[in-house]
Design brief:
Blueprint (H helix, E strand, L loop, with lengths): L8 E2 L12 E2 L7 H5 L6 H6 L46
Length: 94
């Protein structure tokens, strides 16, 4: 037996469009049973569920470089990170 999964993406909502040109599909709770119903065969209904999630129900924040390694699969990947001020000049004169 092989256990696997897929992440479906869709066009970004208003919030995520500032970060990327696509976002994961997030199903609304009331659609879980319909999505998981093995007898559901109406493609047009399934496609309607793949719409971008309501941006008003989301938030985003910077995270640390901890997320950059696949070896890190823990809740620390979701912790907000402190954002340092970007350096304004590459070189400074003494």
């Amino acid at each position: 037996m092989v256990e696997t999964c897929s992440i479906l993406t869709t066009t970004p909502n208003k919030l995520m469009a500032t970060v990327h040109d696509r976002m994961p599909v997030i199903l609304q709770k009331e659609h879980y049973d319909l999505w998981l119903d093995p007898g559901m065969t109406r493609v047009e209904v399934a496609c309607e569920l793949l719409a971008p999630f309501d941006y008003r129900l989301m938030r985003y924040f910077p995270v640390s470089n901890h997320v950059n390694s696949v070896a890190n699969d823990d809740e620390a990947c979701s912790f907000p990170a402190e954002v340092s001020r970007p350096q304004s000049h590459l070189f400074y004169s003494a």
